[in-house]
Amino acid sequence: MNEPGDSCRRCGACCLQGGPALHTEDMELLIASHLVLAQLITVRRGEMVVWPGAVTQTPARVELVKLQGRGGDWRCLFYARQTSGCAIYANRPLECRLFQCWAPDPLNRIIGQGTLTRTDLLHPDDPVREFILRQEVQCPANRIKELAPHAQPDSAALRELENLVRIDLLIRAQAMGRLGIAPKLELFLFGRPYFIMLAPFGIAARETNTGMRLALNAPP
Ligand code: SF4
Questions:
Q1: Distance (Å, whole) CA 78 – CA 70
Q2: Are 217 and 204 within 8 A, CB to CB?
Q3: Distance from the alpha carbon of residue 126 to the mean position of ligand 1, in angstroms
Q4: How far apart are CA 97 and CA 93, in angstroms?
Q5: Most buried residue, 4, 121, 208, 216, by CB count within 10 Å?
């Protein structure tokens, strides 16, 4: 395991743990097209996340917009493993510019402060806002933390989670279909699907003839 020194040794540990959340200072990167919406992912308020410097997951206190991961994990989209380098180094976001693993205070001071949300990045008249609002009202991410610990086979908690999974999928499908939204924008507009967020709680989803069904994974 890499131990922090007093300068960057380009170990890449920071970039492998997840791309940065964007702050108002990063708006200019989007205006100048150094970043585009299809490279972003929304972490919904209440979604379980590992905050920088923490080791366990806790619910996100605010909605965040982050750079997407790559290859099914949170490794930053712009991290080049071969060179241990950043593909957008000259235009990297604020959190990356502040991050020093040997001196975390500058970054810690801004974590969760002045962060952008998805609606900050959408036109005020964009019709997708209505679908985002429906998602927040009808399937809030914080219900997962409340319900998942009580999920047992055939329990009310598992059935409610199943209903929330279906609502989330329905809202996404309606928005994408009715508004003709490109699939590459889904993670920015709606974050990770609800059923994906259940996996860390040992709850698996499978498609059936009657819709998505949930089941508890067998203990290891
Ligand atoms: S934008 Fe660059 S510096 Fe920031 S996490 Fe990604 S690869 Fe690392």
A1: 9
A2: yes
A3: 30
A4: 6
A5: 121
| Pocket lined around ligand 1, Cβ cut-off 6 Å | 15, 19-20, 67, 76, 78-79, 86, 88, 92, 96
Closest residue to atom 4 of ligand 1, CA basis: 96
- The model's pLDDT over 143-157, given as tens digits with 9 standing for 90+, comes to 999 999 999 998 999
148 in Cβ contact with 198 (< 8 Å): yes
Q: Which of 22, 74, 76, 97 to mutate to test the pocket of ligand 1 (most atoms within 8 A of CB)?
A: 76
Asked if residue 142 has pLDDT above 90, the reply is yes
- Cβ-in-10-Å burial (0-12, 13-18, 19+) of 217 comes to exposed
Residue nearest to atom 2 of ligand 1 (CA): 86
Burial class (CB in 10 A: 0-12, 13-18, 19+), 142: middle
Structure-derived torsion over alpha carbons of residues 2, 3, 8, 12, reported in degrees to the nearest 10: 30
Residue 219 pLDDT class (50, 70, 90 cuts) = low
Angle at 163 between CA 157 and CA 168, to 5 degrees: 125
